[in-house]
């Protein structure tokens, strides 16, 4: 790693030295640039937050009365001599890539991203950069996604079969992002109920004009004689005793991890649907190539594997993670 590179990994996360700000910090800091509102990318307690304008409502839901500033897509702002702009990553609503330009060099931090269209958010925007800092959650060739429309059709057929057989269908999904994507794309086969944490996020999406299937919060309990419903619940609800009240039912899990045999075995009582809000291996490679970057840094997931792959392709490549952050911070 060249010594004059102006972004470094610290014990607090990614730090832009000339701009004096962190990107998705791991602990409270003075100024945080936030790619999206998932909890593993947002830390409470920062003095100020800077994010994409489309992300403000969701970030406010996460942070309450914190100081949050938003910027429209593509608009550039000077922060202590560093030009900052936010560009759609397609991961969930409001999710951004962050483009930083300093002294003629451009660095793009992808955050989490997906390249397949999603009606609940703005589509991924390819960006050019000298340096690309990319996620690598699914950075192995075994991860190759089918077209989402086919997976949605598969989920719809499963739900329709459950309904025809007098069973309820339960999908375990993330409360922010995956649940709303399903509600925006699934066919209206029957009544839909959602866990209360999902209901709160649904309301935010609908306030922003996102069209979802008609749904009811789980707290407004349905007629227990009613069968053939679809229930969306977070993965943590998987072991809840109240699930027995929905019997007979079938369980499903739409996730990129369902492509992994060990996860299919681990969740054998659930129907696996390979539907991810992250890029697959081949989309990661496509993004690197389209960026024109000479140096690539990988974070999250299979960072080491992607680093070895990129080096074989002639890139200057590195893996950054929490494990080596403290060591790098002292160099």
Notes on the structure:
With 331 residues, this protein is an alpha/beta fold. The longest helix has 17 residues, at 148-164. It has helices at 56-63, 148-164, 178-185, 196-207, 261-266, 281-291, 303-312, 322-329, and strands at residues 7-10, 13-16, 21-23, 31-34, 48-52, 68-71, 77-79, 82-88, 96-102, 105-109, 131-136, 168-172, 192-194, 216-217, 230-233, 249-254, 270-273, 295-301, 316-319. It contains eight helices and 19 strands. Helix content is 24%, strand content 26%. The strands form three sheets. The chain has a seven-stranded mixed β-sheet, covered by helices on one side. The protein has a six-stranded mixed β-sheet with strand order 1-2-3-4-5-6. A six-stranded parallel β-sheet has the order 14-13-15-12-16-17. Helix 7 links the parallel strand 18 and strand 19.
Which residues form runs of ≥5 with pLDDT under 50?
none
Secondary-structure element series: EEEEEHEEEEEEHEHEHEEEHEHEHEH
Instruction: Kindly report the average pLDDT value.
Output: 93
Number of strands: 19
Instruction: Characterize the overall form.
Output: globular
What does this entry show, briefly?
This protein has eight helices and 19 strands. With 331 residues, it is an alpha/beta fold.
Key terms:
7-stranded mixed β-sheet; 331 residues; 8 helices; 19 strands; alpha/beta
SSE blueprint and pairings:
Blueprint: E1 7-10, E2 13-16, E3 21-23, E4 31-34, E5 48-52, H1 56-63, E6 68-71, E7 77-79, E8 82-88, E9 96-102, E10 105-109, E11 131-136, H2 148-164, E12 168-172, H3 178-185, E13 192-194, H4 196-207, E14 216-217, E15 230-233, E16 249-254, H5 261-266, E17 270-273, H6 281-291, E18 295-301, H7 303-312, E19 316-319, H8 322-329
Parallel strand pairs: 3-4, 4-5, 5-6, 10-11, 11-18, 12-15, 12-16, 13-14, 13-15, 16-17, 18-19
Antiparallel strand pairs: 1-2, 2-3, 7-8, 8-9, 9-10
């Amino acid at each position: 790693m060249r010594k004059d590179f102006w972004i470094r990994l610290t014990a607090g996360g990614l730090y832009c030295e000339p701009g004096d700000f962190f990107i998705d910090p791991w602990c409270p800091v003075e100024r945080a640039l936030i790619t999206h509102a998932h909890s593993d990318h947002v830390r409470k307690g920062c003095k100020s937050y800077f994010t994409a304008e489309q992300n403000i409502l969701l970030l406010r839901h996460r942070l309450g009365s914190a100081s949050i500033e938003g910027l429209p897509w593509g608009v550039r702002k000077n922060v202590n001599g560093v030009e900052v702009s936010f560009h759609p990553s397609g991961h969930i609503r409001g999710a951004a890539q962050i483009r930083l330009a300093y002294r003629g060099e451009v660095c793009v931090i992808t955050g989490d991203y997906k390249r397949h269209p999603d009606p609940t958010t703005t589509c991924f925007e390819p960006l050019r950069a000298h340096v690309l800092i990319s996620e690598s959650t699914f950075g192995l060739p075994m991860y190759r996604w089918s077209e989402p429309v086919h997976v949605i059709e598969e989920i719809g057929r499963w739900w329709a079969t459950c309904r025809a057989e007098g069973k309820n269908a339960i999908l375990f999904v993330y409360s922010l992002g995956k649940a709303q994507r399903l509600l925006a794309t699934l066919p209206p086969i029957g009544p839909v109920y959602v866990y209360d944490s999902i209901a709160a996020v649904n309301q935010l999406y609908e306030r922003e004009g996102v069209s979802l299937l008609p749904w009811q919060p789980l707290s407004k309990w349905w007629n227990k004689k009613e069968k053939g419903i679809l229930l969306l619940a977070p993965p943590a609800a998987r072991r809840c005793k109240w699930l027995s009240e929905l019997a007979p039912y079938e369980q499903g899990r739409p996730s990129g991890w369902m492509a992994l045999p060990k996860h299919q075995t681990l969740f054998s009582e659930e129907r696996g649907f390979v539907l991810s809000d992250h890029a697959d291996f081949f989309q990661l490679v496509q993004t690197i190539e389209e960026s024109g970057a000479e140096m690539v840094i990988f974070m999250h997931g299979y960072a080491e594997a992607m680093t070895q792959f990129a080096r074989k392709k002639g890139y200057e490549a590195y893996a950054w993670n929490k494990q080596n952050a403290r060591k790098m911070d002292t160099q």
